[in-house]
Amino acid sequence: MGRRKKAVDWLSRLVRGNRRAVRRPPASKYPAPRAEARFGFAEAGPPGLHDLEARLPPPGTETQPAWTPRPKHNDRLDPSQSAGGGYVRGADGTQRPHYWGHRERLRSRFLSGGHAPMPEYELLELLLFNAIPRIDVKPLAKRLLAEFGDLNGVVAASERNLLRVEGATDRVWLQLRIVEAFAHRMSQAKVLDREVLSSWSDVVSYCRTTMAHRQTEQFRVLFLDRKNVVIADEAQGEGTVDHVPVYPREVARRALELSASALLIVHNHPSGDPTPSEADIEMTLRLEAACGALGIVIHDHLIIGKDKELSFRSTGLMGTMGID
C-alpha cells in the first residue's frame, strides 16, 4: 500500500506539471520491462511510471478524436453541411454562413418593394426563416410548392402530408398554422357584425380563404339577425373528401339559440369543382323545410371550389323543388 500511495502521489504531481518536484523512485524497485514484453492486464504487470510519462503527448499537441460526430437534425446542421454549403466573408471581415447574405437581401427586397414582384417560393422562404433558422430553406420552399401547387395549398396542407416532404419539421407545420389563423381572423373581421348584402364580396372572400383549399369537406353556417347582420359563424360538420354529414334539426336548433332570423350556408368541394351533387341539392331543400317551419330564412347556399364558387340562389336551385 505504501508503494502504491507513493506512485500515485508522484503521478499526480507529474500531471499537474510540477515535474521538478518529482523524485523518481529507485530503478531497483521498478525494473524496466523487457523489450519483448507486451503491456497488458496479465502479461507484463503494472508498467513503470517512467513509461507512462513517455507516453504522454508533448505539451501543446492537439489530439484528434477517434470518432466522428453524427450529423444533427436537418434544421440544426452546420452551415457547411447545408445546401450550397460553406461560409462567406462579410464586408466587415467576419465569416458567416453562406445563406446569411441571401436572407438579408431577401428581407431588404420585401421591405423595399413589397410582395408583388416576388415569386411564391421567395415569399415562402421568408416565412420559413423563423421556423428553420440555420440552413438554406430555398430547396424546401420549392419542394413544398411542387407538392401542394401554390401558397394556399401549402398553408392548408394537413400535418400528415406536410411532414412527408423532405426537410419539413413540426416547427414548419406550426408556422403555417399561425399564418392560416391570421388569414382567417382577418377575413372574418370583415364579415362579423356587418350586413351581408352590402358586404357580399367580403363574405365570398372569407369563405374562399377558410374553405377553398381544405382537403376534406366542411359545412359552415353564417347566422344572421333581422337586419341581415352576421352574428355568428360556425362549422357545423366535418367530413371526408366527398361527403359531410349535415343534420337540419341541429342547424335549426342552433339558429333558435342565437335568435337568428336567417342563414347563409356554405360548404366546400375538395375536388375543386363547385358543381352541386344530388345529395347537395336534397340537403339544401331539407334545410329550407326545417328552418322554414320555424320562420328562419335561408338566403343562399354557397359551394366553394378551388378557383370559383357556385350560388344556389343565382342558379335557381333554392326553393324550386319540393321534398317527397
What do you see in this structure?
The N and C termini lie far apart (105 Å). Helix 10 crosses helix 11. This protein has a five-stranded mixed beta sheet, sandwiched between helices. Strands 1-2 form a two-stranded antiparallel ribbon. Residues 39-44, 71-85 and 320-324 have low confidence and may be disordered. The chain folds into three domains: 21-53, no CATH class; 98-184; 193-311, Cytidine Deaminase, domain 2, CATH 3.40.140. It has 324 residues and is an alpha+beta fold. The chain contains eleven helices and seven strands. The protein has helices at residues 2-15, 49-55, 98-113, 120-131, 138-148, 151-156, 159-162, 170-189, 200-211, 248-257, 278-292; strands at 87-89, 95-97, 218-224, 230-238, 262-268, 297-304, 309-311. A hairpin with a 5-residue loop joins strand 1 (87-89) and strand 2. One of its GO terms (biological process) is proteolysis. Residues 41-98 are annotated as: Disordered. Belongs to the UPF0758 family. Keywords: Hydrolase, Metal-binding, Metalloprotease, Protease, Zinc. GO terms for molecular function: metal ion binding; metallopeptidase activity.
